[in-house]
Design a protein that fits this description.
By secondary structure, this protein is an alpha/beta fold. It is 46% helix and 10% strand. A seven-stranded parallel beta sheet has the order 3-2-1-6-4-7-5.
């Protein structure tokens, strides 16, 4: 892998670490060849961390077709981390992008790959980030999409928009590389994210990890059910809209704790005698 040019800009120097703190997650990939080709796509752009969520072929890293398609990126393929769920794949991640083949009415904010890469450039300064890609046939479920912080959509030819999984990985990896190696000011998208997350110029606190945010949503949902604001038999899109709201804010750990504190006190006020509010 070639390295970024030397720079006196500390932000650019920090982003050299972005190549190792960025993971590419393939959710339930069906074809070993695509996994190998994705490993190749990562390595050509200077990345190396590949995570596979419940691949259809259990030991896909040693599959002959995968190795053939990796075409020299055998090291990236061999070191791919296999996990059972997307939650496991996002463990320790504070910000993630889901790639979707279609535009969605609900879910996180949606960006072009270039805008998403600009935002990722800013987020990579604060810790681990992930790019999430769905199954070749079914893509990502709504639940998977809502677990991510942002959404990217490749504006392909509308008459034939079917990108191969590894090609989609290549597009995003290229845009990330370009953003990480840029010594210019962060893009408008990244600036907007940074400004929102920093509270209009205040120092940015420790970002909340994916598992902490998911626990917050579960706690908040329990509180809203207890308040009878949310009817579990007819939830409509309430939690999806709340997820979209919080995804725009770039949650810090302290903010997650505040929301959980509110949920805890709602449950304390609404629980029956002897109930548990935690």
């Amino acid at each position: 892998m070639d390295h970024p040019h030397h720079s006196s800009d500390p932000a650019v120097a920090d982003l050299r670490g972005g190549f190792t703190s960025t993971r590419f997650v393939l959710v339930e990939p069906s074809h070993p060849g695509n996994v190998g080709a994705a490993a190749r796509a990562l390595k050509t752009m200077g990345f190396s961390r590949l995570v596979l969520v419940s691949p259809r072929v259990p030991h896909v890293q040693s599959d002959p077709e995968a190795i053939a398609m990796a075409s020299g990126a055998d090291d990236v393929l061999a070191s791919a981390h296999v996990v059972p769920t997307l939650a496991d794949a996002l463990n320790g991640v504070h910000w993630s992008i889901a790639l979707t083949a279609r535009l969605r009415e609900y879910g996180p904010p949606q960006w072009t790959p270039r805008a998403a890469a600009g935002a990722a450039r800013e987020q990579a300064l604060h810790g681990e980030i992930a790019l999430v890609f769905g199954n070749e046939r079914t893509g990502l479920s709504n639940e998977d999409v809502e677990r991510c912080s942002a959404l990217a959509h490749i504006p392909a030819n509308p008459a034939y928009s079917s990108l191969n999984l590894a090609q989609a990985v290549q597009v995003l990896a290229y845009e990330l590389r370009t953003a990480y190696l840029s010594s210019d000011e962060v893009t408008a998208a990244a600036s907007a994210v940074a400004q929102t997350a920093a509270g209009q110029g205040e120092p940015v606190g420790a970002r909340a990890a994916s598992d902490e945010i998911e626990s917050m949503y579960a706690h908040l949902e329990s509180a809203l059910v207890a308040l009878e604001f949310l009817d579990p038999a007819n939830p409509k899109k309430l939690m999806s809209r709340l997820r979209r709201l919080f995804a725009r804010s770039g949650l810090e750990r302290e903010e997650v704790n505040i929301v959980r504190g509110i949920a805890k006190h709602i449950l304390l006020k609404t629980r029956p005698p002897g109930g548990d509010a935690s």
